[in-house]
Each structure stands twice: as C-alpha cells, then as structure tokens.
Amino acid sequence: MVSKKTLVELYTRTLKVRLFEEKVWDLFGQNLVPGTLHLYLGQEAVAAGITAAMKDSDWVQSTHRGHGHVIAKGADPKKALAELLGKKTGSCKGKGGSMHITEFDAGVLGATGVVASGLPIAVGAALSSQMKGTNDVVACFFGDGASNNGTFGESLNMAAIWKLPVIWVVENNFYAMGTPIKLTCPSENIAARADGYCTPNVVVDGNNALEVYEAAVEAVKRARDGDGPTLIECKTYRKRGHSRFDPAKYRPKEEAEHWLSRDPVDIIKEIAIKEGAITEKEAEKIRKKLEKEMEEAGKFAVESDYPEPEKALEDVYAEEF
Ligand SMILES: Cc1ncc(C[n+]2csc(CCOP(=O)(O)OP(=O)(O)O)c2C)c(N)n1
Ligand SMILES: [Mg+2]
Questions:
Q1: Taking burial as the number of CB atoms within 10 A of a residue's CB, which of 147, 157, 204, 305 is the most buried?
Q2: Which domain holds residue 250?
Q3: Is the CB of 115 under 6 A from ligand 1?
Q4: pTM of the model
C-alpha cells in the first residue's frame, strides 16, 4: 500500500479536477464560455492517478477532453478558467479556449481538437527528452476512439523501437461520441493492441485513482530507467454526454447506472479514510479549501478583460527564423 500522504494527494487531486469542472459547467450555464465543451467529469481519477506519479518537469500531452489533464498536472485554475472564457489573462491569452487549453509552465504540451494527433507529439517530446538526456517522461492521454486512428500504430511502433520514455494512457470511456467501442475494436481491451508493438500493457479501473497511480508508478519507472513505453488502459465513464448538450441517450440504462454509481471522488475518499490517511472532517476541510480556490478562480476569470482585437494575430504564427 502507498503512503498516507500519497492517498491524501490522490484524493485532493481527484477532487480538484472535479471542482474545476463543476465550476466550468456553472460558468458555461451562464453563457460565459464561448464554443463547445468536452467535460472531464467522471474521468478525474485517471488524470489524478497518472500525474501524481510524475515530476513537475515531466510532460503531459492532452486531448479535446483536456481540462482535467491540465489541472491535475498543476496548472493555475485562474489562468485555466480565464482561458476557457477567452480572456487575455488566460494561459494562451484567450486564444486557445477549451480545446486548446494548455499550460506549458506546468508541463502540458497542449490539448488538441484533432483526435489522436497528440500521440506523435508525445513521441517527439519523448525523443527530445532522450536526446537531451533530461530523463523526463511524457504521459500521452487519448481516448478509446483515438486508438482506431493510424497515428496510434505509428506512434506506438516508433516509441517501442527507440525505447522512448512515454506512458500511453488510454481513457476508455467506451464511446467515441455516440459510437460504442465494441463496434469498432475487435478486442475487449484496447491494451491488447499494444502487444503488437511489444509494449508492456495493463488494464486498470480508471475510476480508482489508487489503481491508476500504482500502474503509473511502474510505467514511469520503466520509462525513466530507459526501458521504453508502457500502455495503461483506464476503464472509465463520462458523467455527461460527449460535449455540451449531448444527453448521452445512446448509453444503456444499466451500464450508465453501474458506472455512475462508482464515483471517482467517493472511491478514493473511502480508501483514504479506510487506510487511516484522512478523516471525514479533514476531507471536508480540503473540499472547502478547493471550493474557495475555484470560486476565486471563477471570479478572476469573469472579471478579466478580453484581448484587444489588434492583438488577434499575436502569438498565433511562429516567428520567422
Ligand atoms: C481526426 C478527427 N476525427 C474525428 C473528429 C470528431 N471527433 C471529435 S471527438 C471524437 C470522439 C473521440 O472519442 P475518444 O477518442 O474515445 O475520446 P472521448 O471523446 O471519448 O474522450 C470524434 C470522432 C475529430 N475531432 N478529429
Ligand atoms: Mg471515448
């Protein structure tokens, strides 16, 4: 079993992502978030468990469902919320928004709206780490749907032959928009596909931050020791539909009830209490503190200014070299 400190950290990280997303939903409901949204609600334990096993200098590559990855890796909620609102105080000066949310200083390479486009970016970042000898590892998040894209095979192959320090994190929430993964993947586990690339792989309960963390510790060690990539498949479930207004009616009632009764925040809290790492009262104190942080972050974002129109093209194109 991991230390009590780690259990508290896992609870705190999982809850922080949850409260951030609830704040996002609240602001969205007030019509303050332009564009679409892919909420991370329900999948919090994946980002929390993976990032808790990483160092600050390590890297994360995100997806279109990226808020949770960015917050779990340590991005400032103020700058992240301001970014979602398109404000100039945002982490991309309001020019990225939800699908391009990032925080380079916190070790986030970026989020992307192009499904599966993050995998080759992670290969590049890991190659850079290997060539520079920084010993940093890269965790690349992607969905079950993304594993059907050609870049999956190309990236896993290259990372395996060059023994790159990558952790492939498949967030299998069983659906790519409204398409069940069982209609598009012949194997029950996506992890099985990694066998074809001689990449060690494991399937974990993605709603249990501790299980995710334990798998991540092993994968991070393998990567740092120069022994190459690992694929971790985290079975999880989104609390809501694919994006903002999708009611997710395509999900069978029993399946949804089963998964939604397994709340990632409750699961890690129960483990932490059972292991004597925290009391109910202490857990509540952490929640109150984080709620206050999100309240302040929301206020900061709302009160921030929009970028000046004449700055629209600044930081958008690479400078000439
Ligand atoms: C290359 C590409 N194809 C299709 C889309 C449309 N699209 C956006 S999200 C999505 C589903 C992705 O599913 P998955 O990888 O399982 O991630 P999840 O949304 O479940 O987190 C699709 C098909 C896209 N954005 N990019
Ligand atoms: Mg999916």
A1: 147
A2: 4-311
A3: yes
A4: 0.97
Cβ partners under 8 Å of residue 28, min gap 6:
37, 244
Any atom of ligand 1 within 6 Å of the Cβ of 64 = yes
Distant-in-sequence contacts of 24-32, Cβ < 8 A, 24+ apart = 24/67, 24/81, 24/84, 26/298, 27/81, 27/84, 27/85, 27/298, 27/301, 27/302, 28/244, 32/85, 32/302
Q: Is residue 300 in some structural domain?
A: yes
Backbone angles phi, psi at 143, to 5 degrees: -95, 175
Strand order through the sheet with 230-235: 108-110, 59-61, 138-143, 166-172, 230-235, 201-205
Tens digit of each residue's pLDDT (9 = 90 or more) over 217-251: 999 999 999 999 999 999 999 999 999 889 999 99
The count of structural domains within the chain is: 1
Q: Where do we find the tokens 């709302």? A: 302
Instruction: Answer whether residue 316 is part of any domain.
Output: no
Is ligand 1 within 6 A of the CB of residue 79?
no
317 within domain boundaries: no
